[in-house]
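Worked example 4.2. Below are the chains of a multi-component assembly; read each line carefully before continuing.
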Amino acid sequence: MNYTRFLNRLSLARKPSPIRILTAILNESSAEMISMAGGMPNTQTFPIMEASFKLRDGTVLELDQNIMNKGLQYAPTPGLPDLVTWIEGLQSRVHNPPTYNDKSHPGKMECLVTCGSQDGLCKAFEALVSEGDNVLLEHPTYSGTLAIVGPMAANLIPVNSDSQGLDPSHLRKTLSRWSPSDFSRSGSGAPKILYCIPNGGNPTGTSLNLERKKEIYKIAQEYDLLILEDDPYFYIQFTKPYIPSLLSMDVDGRVLRFDSMSKLLSSGVKCGKEIISWMRIGVLTGPKPIVDRVNLHMQCSVMHASGLSKVFLIKLFEHWGHDGFLEHAEKTATFYETKRDLCLKSAEKHLKGLAEWSVPTGGMFLWLKLNVKDTKKMIEVKARANNVLFVPGSAFMIDQSQPCSHIRASYSTATPEEMDLAFKRLADLIREEVKESD
Amino acid sequence: MDYERYLNETGIGRKPSPIRSQHAKLVCLEPEDDAIYLTGGLPNHSTFPAVKATFQLRDGSSIELDHKATKDALQYDATPGFKELLNWIYELQRQVHNPPTYNNNKHPGEMKCIMTNGAQHGLSLVMGNLVCKDDICLMESPAYAGAISVLNHLKPKMIPIDTDKHGIIPSELRKVLSRWNPSTIQQPGKDGPKLLYCVPTCGNPTGASLTLERKKEIYELAREYKFLIIEDDPYFYLRSKPYVPSFLSMDTDGLVLRMDSVSKVVSAGIRIGVLTGPAPLIDTFTCNIETSVQHTSGLSQQFLLALLKKWGYEGFFANADKMASFYEKRKYECLEAARNHLQDVAEWDEPAGGMFLWIKLKVKDAHPVVEKLIQEKNVFVAPGWYFTLDSKPCPYIRVAFSNTTYENMNKAFESLAQVIQKYKSENE
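Applying the procedure described above to all two chains together yields the following structure tokens:
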């Protein structure tokens, strides 16, 4: 694969900072070495020495001065080595990518710890997209992704999804606008990247099955596309065993995978209007030549994710091991599955005949199509006045000015009683809206 | 002030995300108790494995964070930073800098602060949203290597402004500016310099600090030629009081973007910095934070908030003072070690503070000397060209005295002197 083809001018111009190169040499040198090169503060001046975290099950994780100093001092950009090794082990066990540990592969798998998966996603788009590029997006799509690519002045091309996620036949149809030779010719305008959320899609709650994933990967090979696999809900799948990821079938090194720790490990706190996740730790996994570009961007911006978050995670992961992590993931999935069932029960009870939906196969969202033309005003004005809120479907559309019948309901934090009451209020609103338009 | 003039296309194109802006509109009204939100995709707390964190401080006391603290910290919009922590920081900026734009909602450039993932993140938000290809950026020279690497790939025209032991030389700045006419500089096509970048206190790499007089003169030039001052000031608190007033403190026009860091006074690894500046620009950066890191680590912010609350402002200043003396002691040790070994082979000015000594070796190019020092003596220092805008031979090196014992400083400089002598005898 010719990775340079995918990178934009800005990203190709990034050079490693000389000081960071020196730090790398330094890490490999002997104990007698004296360094007066870096600008590291002295750890003796940091006011914290040790920390302990009490877990829900009563276990206490002790972080001694040695590990705390690692968390409090400047650290390598890709993440503290122990944490990266643990995560690579997890990726190998869960996805077993063909490019794992394959040094001879030009797209050898590399992991990078980012400040939340969204930061990885943002920096990847920033490395790949140039003004005027045609970019393929699963549609409807995550509003955060739209906010990332919006200011880039790219041409966003929707690829339809149905109840089983992104539709490969529509992908093929969309790509047929270009002739196959366009895909290796620069300046042809042929798309180079495809963005999708394969599990528990945001906002749709749908998941790709294995056949579709294989088909999509095959199309990507044919048209030489990079796939951005944004998979924060991978561990919140409601069917077991997990459907293999696109990364797991990535023989070419064309998949950039974004894993989130927020959904599993971070305490989300309800503050009325937005997602708060505590740790801001995500993982970018993909072919080394692309991951290295994101790493260079991190070097001169965030430098690295929070050291406190990282040392806490190292301790927690060491305590759990991969087995314990996967067990916790399973418990988390079961928790959300129960929430989904309660949500569906309330929807059946109140919204039958007023709305349609398909059963979410993962994640935190129910995507409802209401019997109304446009939900924006109804939600923003009337629902608000009736003390209930959903996200109007237009927020997930490339063209947000078009009327949209959908809404997204999140079942992650509401209690069963709240969900029931919310759908009852929504049902009344729909009836009123239908009556008015008659 | 027309702040849009300073933004690049990406910066101008940034809009608040639809979910956030819709909710901001709706929820900011007056959330009622029985309102039900099935909106955000926030994870449920009960899946989070930790319930309490305890931090042991160096002074023997401790800080506890429990889930209630997390909830309390997050009552409002989290992107700019946790409300209570931000309030604390606003008050700190008022006490220390008392900017003319503070709490002045009639001013188009009213002062605003946001929390960033370290001061370097703030710098990258600023440059990434302001600078276009071929824009003119005035850079103090030598300049912090991290600022050069943030700008390099954006391909602006970087013009070096000479410095001496008191930082930027105002007459040099004036000389460079004389090629533009201040009265036509804002007309399209006459684009003058967009910004001036500097580290005003204990500069990196030089250790030099601007005097108040110089700051005033430079600020007047900024007003006249309408360029922004990027005041990157991570070592501000590493000088003992009284502090030299900052550019922010004299910013009547809303031209200053200031980066503060907690890396040197609390911890570098927690990745927390503060970006302060005129509201229209800060709002653009906030949109960028929202689409990328979303907010800085909650664990880091909560820890910092708890620590600052425990300290109070007095405690914060007392701690900063302690840091300043800690590094000052190191500085004098380093100067002594340099006098012990380097008098014949190098020269240097006493740094105002901070962590660095900027040494001019009596050779044409320090780079081969540094390479030999690493290979033959296992001593690492940074060659001066890292901090220059061209890659011409540079006789300087930067040494950090923050993390080295007096004994090792002596060893390092003794080795350095030997390598220079040998190099000179072989090459000059």
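Take a moment to check your reading of the output against the notes. Chain B has two domains: 3-54+62-313, 326-427. Residues 3-54+62-313 of chain B form a domain with the Aspartate Aminotransferase; domain 2 fold (CATH 3.40.640.10).
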